[in-house]
Amino acid sequence: MSGARLEFQNPIEDAISKLKFSPESNNLLIASWDSYLRLYNVESSSLILQLYSRAALLDCCFENESTSYTSGSDGFIQRYDFNAGTVDRIGGHDDIATSVLYSLDKGEVISTGLDKKIKFWDTRLGQSLVLSTDAGAPVRCITVNGNNLVVCVQASMLIYDLRSLDRPFQSYESQVEVPIRCLTSVPFSTAGYAVGSVDGQVALDFPNTACSSEMKYTFRCHPKSMKGRLHGACINAIEFTPGGSGTFVTGDNEGYVISWNAKSRRRLFELPKYSNSVASLAFNHTGELLAVASSHTYQEANEKEEPPQVFIHKF
User: Fold this and answer.
1) Are 300 and 313 in contact (CB under 8 A)?
2) Does residue 78 surpass a pLDDT of 90?
3) Into which CATH architecture does domain 3-314 fall?
4) pTM
């Protein structure tokens, strides 16, 4: 699988936190700790737009081709209008805002924070907070699959129905028994999701389905022996290809990107090891391009702090 480095006109000065491809084009959104949100055309390796925020950007998402959102270390959720080149705040949390996503079905922005809150914003009404619900503990990551909002709290999973958000309709411990680092939806099942843990485990689960016990499973990406104990690098990112093939990739803190198939439960291939941690992964809308962020993540004391880079692979 061929790959090329994305050439930066303006170097990224700090760690990359998130990559996201736009819904319909090959424009790539890059959120980073240097407080800039960048939009790149990966076909021409050219910078389309660069907008500044006063805090480290920890997550980002698209609403459409011209609008995106970020969550920041200052707690604020911000909206970016690429046509106008403007940034405005839609609201915030009382602590670090850890994640943000846009629900196309509801037409709302969903954000979470270390203040234990899950907040829902209807940006069509301006700065309108629709609902704020308490998750009971700091929230690290979320994903939406159909009408299900899956919320990760330490090693526990809370599942909300987006049509009735007063309380989670299901709450249980994940298959992994250590803190979860990343979470994503499984595209071939409206009830499925996958998580990656800090010790290298990946778990796929399909709650509330007839074949849940048959389909769910857990595995380690890169088990290693350290002082006689099993060790695995933190899984920072899991991304599925669009559609129903079941193919997905994992990226870890030791610089490995590995492709797997969820249906056959097989490892497909491994990319050459990156010199830095793999901080984020993203597929374009056709699944033909994979973006890889090679960047430190501030998780380990001995991490290499080399200049962040983004690589584009033809998948």
Assistant:
1) no
2) yes
3) 7 Propeller (2.130)
4) 0.94
